[in-house]
Amino acid sequence: MPEGQVESSTLGSEEWLVGIFGLPSEVRVSQKIPKKTLMEMGAGGRGGKKLVQELIGELRWVASLQPSNTGLPGAKGDPDSTNEIEVIWGRVRSEPSRSSMLLDLTSQIHRSIPYPIVLAMTSDAGWVEFSIAIPEVIESSLTHRSTRERPLVVRLDEGRLTQSVIERGVFTFRMGQLPRSSVADLYVAWFDRLLSLAIGQRTGVFGLSNSNHETRTRFEALQRSTDLEIEIGALTSKANKAKQLRIRSDLNLEIRQKTTELIECQSLLVGSASTRME
């Protein structure tokens, strides 16, 4: 089996995650994160604590990547630079009744841990959902504030097209085969690959970015595309129910404007080096 490949039966396990990211023993932590600890670290309010209690079946601190245990340089004297990455694995107790509940839980975990993290949440239903906080070098230049406030999330279902891309080794997450200029650059490389998976699910085309600027552009286009699709759907529903011709005409005009913006955003999604996923 080629390096980086894993058996489909192990999809979503902690060891699957270790293999996918090529995490050496030097960075492994392998410790349970108690729910109480997570809540003490800042899982917000009564609602956040309820999500933690009801949804999390297990949460583990898989690895901690730092200059001292990776051999990768950090950025001395720059408090905003990424000098440490935490890799977290979790399993939900049961399927959430609403998809927004898992997104809220994911956001709670990211806010509670005061470091950039890569989080993999799994389910007995056979999916794994990756999320990653936005790297500082990308976040600092985003134009839409709402885009900054949520992590990048991408779900892989068993047998999904994107799973085959990982297992065939079309691209790699393995840290030994990614940029080794700094911890921060490794984190950006992981972010760009997860971004490429998310875009690939929409377009059928996988393509890495050639620069941080392109990564930022594609991420913002992806998030804006998602928002626009929701807005267009809501406007379409209103237009279909509108009884006055003037109101319906105004709504249809707004729909056309947002559809034009959506097409423009989608044209920015595909990266410079692309491979169609068969």
N-to-C span? 20 Å
The major beta sheet can be summarized as: 6 strands, mixed
| Structure summary, number of beta strands | 8
Helix/strand class: alpha+beta
Order of helices and strands: HEHHEHEHEEHHEHHEHHE
Oligomer: single chain
Task: Explain what the structure shows.
By secondary structure, the protein is α+β, with helices and mostly antiparallel strands. The chain has one domain. It has 11 helices and 8 strands. The protein has helices at 14-21, 35-40, 45-55, 67-70, 99-112, 136-139, 145-148, 161-167, 183-203, 212-241, 245-266; strands at 28-32, 56-65, 85-92, 117-122, 127-132, 152-157, 205-208, 273-276. The strands form 2 sheets. A 6-stranded mixed β-sheet has the order 1-2-3-4-5-6, sandwiched between helices. It is globular, with a radius of gyration of 20 Å. The two termini are 20 Å apart. The model is unreliable at 1-9 (pLDDT under 50).
Summed up, what is this model?
By secondary structure, this protein is α+β, with helices and mostly antiparallel strands. It is 47% helix and 18% strand.
List keywords for this structure.
278 residues; globular; 11 helices; two-stranded antiparallel sheet; alpha+beta; disordered N terminus; 6-stranded mixed sheet
